Amino acid sequence: MRILILALIALGSGVVYAADNILGFDEAGSTAQRDIEAQLDSSINAEEMDGWLKLMSATPHHVGSLASKENAEFIAGLLESWGYDTEIAEYEILLPTPKTREIELVAPTNFVASLREETLAEDPSTAIRETLLQPYNAFSIDGDV
After folding, report:
1. What is the mean pLDDT of residues 55-67?
2. In angstroms, rounded to a whole number, what is the distance separating the alpha carbons of residues 134 and 131?
3. What is the mean pLDDT of residues 52-81?
4. Does 1 reside within a domain?
5. Angle of helix 66-81 relative to helix 46-56, nearest 10 degrees?
């Protein structure tokens, strides 16, 4: 019975010891990984990230737009400043856009949707109309519903 109890204690302490390690890491690797993660966590600046988000969302930036390219270049610049090698690849894609856009309710009452996003005071980018991709339902066939 004593041997069984000692074996269970040894097994139990081994489980506690193993639980301190990150899955896939030994003790030294777990310690090193936690140090790396702590260093990364301490370098994150929420205000800086908020600034990046405001900069990248300041103008409409749908695929293929000048603002989308500028965002890609900004992100590449950040990554390069942190020591990463970057490359911006260009792809030719199919981006269907409609020639006309209409949404109309004809019964029981008549309603024609404006298909225009309202400008929000708290989001100045919603006032920019020149480069805005108009709303539409992509990859759907024409038809009546």
Report:
1. 90
2. 9
3. 93
4. yes
5. 150
